[in-house]
Amino acid sequence: WVTNRKPISGGADMETIDQAARRRTGELLGMDRIVTLEDFERAVLASNRNICRVKCAAHVDRYNRPAEGKLAVAVLLREYRQGGELFDAVVRSARDLIARKSPMALAGAGQVDIFEVRYVEIFVVVDAVIEDYNVYHETHQAISRRLAAFLDPITGNFNGQGWEIGQLPGRELIYNSIKTVKNIKWIRGLHMFTYVTTERGRQAVEFDEIRRDAFPVPGCGEPEMIT
User: Using only C-alpha atoms, what is the Rg of the chain?
Assistant: First the structure.
């Protein structure tokens, strides 16, 4: 008999032609060397097709604090928020690639830090006027679906292309994303509360503070509607 000790994870859906072209073009542009920040980003992106986005920053650590000689490499997976075991398996080839091809001053000294992006949950409180109180539940569910789709880091945003690492939507963009939800006559007010999840746990954080961070991506918390 066969016993499955752990659930199967990993892998990725088949790439589109555009995704494959964008990922593989980096190998040609890098000419088999890793020198600039763009070279690092392209190399990590090309190392595994489960990697969706990469952002590198020099002379900072993973918490965006000054760190002379360090290279912070933030990675967003297509199957994001699946735990450290999957993340480590996906980026293992990227670590090996950097160790072989990047300058010894970085790779040999352990100055390259590859880590998962910070996920920022955005909770929205909407003070809305609706057509009929009997459609409250329906409207609340519609807002939840709209926000979940809009804030998705991979397929969200108005263009369906997701959000770049370090890009968080502000109040005005979120307002515009839900103002056309069916049964809403107008929105009297909108408030946002943000939480960030790191290896140290989940913590409340001011939106303006986390927006200054270099490595977050948005996610959707359960919205609240006041009528």
Answer: 20
